[in-house]
Amino acid sequence: MRNTKAFNEAVAETLAELARRGVTLAPATVAETIELQITTVSERLGIQVRSAWRYFDASATADRLAKSHASYEESSSEKDVGQAPMPPIDNPELALVLAGVPDSLAQTGGDLYAVIINVAVNAWMAGHIHGEDGCAGCEGSRGDVGHDWEARMRMISEMQPNITKWFDRDVWTAAVNDTGYTVTRR
């Protein structure tokens, strides 16, 4: 379906309608919404996908997407949904996660997906270590410091004394560029 002229025109029209409403969404989000919408119409009416296009309305789709986006924005801003608590700028565990990105980028040959998975797993583990000190499944897996979070932070700081450098965007970007890769917008 995505390789058809009708689909590409529907995405373009819907994005244009969203722009008129002052809403910016990723083209992939709009494409997924349209694909789901057309597939659903086709299945519910028992018709072919190409026939379901006659029921498509870019303006109505843009209205629904804009309303959904506004609803999300309103609920998020009031309750701070989606705003993860940030550790202090000198947190050793966060510094290790940041420092691991350039290394991971070089090791994976620039595979951004693998880098993101690595960061996510390391960030999850850091939260696990801090928040679940009583986890029976982690016994013996944390080295000499065991479940003592403060001792772990001291150990990390001793292993990498200049942890604050990783919180400098320019230093981090230079380290990423030194791997031979860079993330740029198309």
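Next protein, fold it too.
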Amino acid sequence: MRARNALFTTVILAAAVTACSGADHQQGTAERNSGPSAGAAKSPDCGPDSTLSQSDWLDKCASETPAEKQPDTELAVGDTFAYKDGLKVTVTDVNKITQFGEYDDKPEADKTPFRVKFEVVNGTKKPYDLDSLSYSAEGGTTGGETEFITVEPGSKQSTGRLAPGRTGAFTSEYSIAKSDGNTIVFTVSRTDDAFLKDDSAYLGDDPNWTGDIK
């Protein structure tokens, strides 16, 4: 038991040093969805009082990174990224598009049209210009490229200003080749003046959400 506890302490200290070394360049932190919809497997008990055998602890705890230790910028659909200044973004769903308007961009049969739904919470003290947020999507299975498409039914583009304390729900529409699978990585980037002035945050990685098209 002593050997496992000693190894556990070493792993925790190493993780803490790594986290502290990169803390100055973080844009924000993850607020992970722990509810049933998160779909995450239950993490093993890796604490100092764990009932796992030494071999099981080494296999389940030392060789893998628990979900709560994943980088703050690597999120799942349903998770929230909280920026340092109070702005928050949550990707709530990734759905296949089945309804199109008369003049919409309906993809060819070999492509899957999909919609990313997300929410923005303005936790700052000033109105936030939503045009300062940009989005991109790519295939998470083979790294396949996506294309922006225009779809009127169910669409809600993020434009204008969001008042302090208010939440806005928006969408972004794309298509991807069916051969590239159904897993999508959605990335959000900020380009507002207040954010760009924070050199340390600007150097940090943008948040990415990974999920399957439903």
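About the second fold: The helical segments are 2-22, 54-62, 193-196, 199-202.
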